[in-house]
Write a structure and sequence with these properties.
The chain is an alpha/beta fold. 51% of the residues lie in helices and 9% in strands. The protein has a five-stranded parallel beta sheet with strand order 2-1-3-4-5, with helices on both faces. α1 packs across α5 and α9 crosses α10.
Length: 272
């Protein structure tokens, strides 16, 4: 695939898989990056999985396409010629609030404050360039799963008894303002609910003044946490919260607060 002009787009994907259509054939992904190599790499990683993938080289071209088409997920660089990534994200959140956003960046250290701003605007996660095809596939899958769970949030709220939600809120209030107790709050919430759906994760994130993506990173990383009622991972209420807590890989002699923040930073900077 030859690199095209700066304002030229790729019409990538939209290819029917052999043996009929799959669920992924209905997922439309837009990749925005001023580097054509990144777009090609994203297409090569995601198109064989059955996703419909398109790419553009500028934010203006991305806005033009988004105004005329539907995209479930957008991968976007932050530092680009012309319209910058943050301005684009603000626009996208306003015009297409249901579209998921993942930031891809090759300047992680220089852009740390900008990435924090992007999280405040509601991106799902961010990941560092260069990335492997497996990393991109994992991030895309996790982002879409998070979006699906969030989309079912209203139904999930109806399924939970009011008393259960009130109990979870009381647990959250016990740890409010203390990030060192993030994992404890998650463990106790899972003891109450049985698992940690998007609704509960968001309530905990709000109560602890954290980004939902930070909570989601922790829940995804540790095998003790369950995100679905039928999750095969070991539930905390079976093992016991205290036993699970003692099993967390936190180095002896380090403050829990620093360990949790180190974990969040590692997950965000090295993977998401």
């Amino acid at each position: 695939m030859e690199a095209l002009g700066h304002e030229k787009q790729w019409e990538l994907g939209n290819r029917e898989q052999e043996g009929g259509m799959t669920m992924k054939d209905h997922i439309h992904i837009l990749v925005l990056d001023d580097d054509p190599v990144i777009i090609k790499s994203a297409w090569r990683a995601l198109e064989p999985e059955g996703y419909n993938v398109e790419g553009v080289l500028s934010a203006n071209e991305a806005m033009h396409k988004i105004e005329r088409s539907h995209y479930d997920l957008v991968f976007t660089e932050l530092m680009m010629p012309g319209l910058d990534g943050i301005t684009f994200i603000r626009w996208l959140r306003q015009i297409r609030p249901a579209t998921g956003i993942v930031v891809i960046t090759g300047h992680l250290i220089q852009e740390i404050e900008t990435i924090k701003e992007a999280h405040k605007l509601g991106i799902i996660s961010h990941m560092r360039k260069p990335f492997t095809p497996a990393m991109l596939r994992d991030v895309a899958g996790e982002a879409l799963a998070w979006m699906q769970a969030s989309g079912l949030e209203s139904d999930t709220r109806e399924e939970f008894p009011a008393e259960m939600i009130e109990t979870v809120d009381r647990v959250i209030s016990q740890y409010r303002g203390n990030a060192s107790h993030t994992i404890r709050a998650l463990l106790h919430a899972q003891d109450i609910v049985g698992y940690l759906p998007a609704l509960i994760q968001k309530r905990i994130a709000t109560g602890l003044n954290m980004y939902p993506s930070e909570i989601h990173s922790i829940v995804s990383f540790y095998p003790y946490f369950r995100t679905k009622a039928d999750d095969e991972r070991i539930p905390c209420h079976v093992m016991g919260s205290q036993k699970v807590w003692r099993g967390m890989p936190i180095k002896r002699g380090r403050k829990v607060e620093k360990a949790v923040h180190d974990f969040i930073k590692q997950r965000q900077l090295e993977y998401m």
